Amino acid sequence: MALKILEMKDGISLNYGNLLRVTNDLEDKRLRYAVRCVTQTASANGLDDGRVMSITRTSGRDSFLLEVAPLSCDADAFGTGFKGAIVFLIDPVEPGKVSTCGMQELYKLTTSEIEVCKSVVEGCSNQQIADIRNVSSETIKTQIQSLFRKTNTANRSELIRRALSVNLPIDRT
Question: Which of 78, 86, 111 is nearest to 20 (CA)?
Answer without folding.
Answer: 86
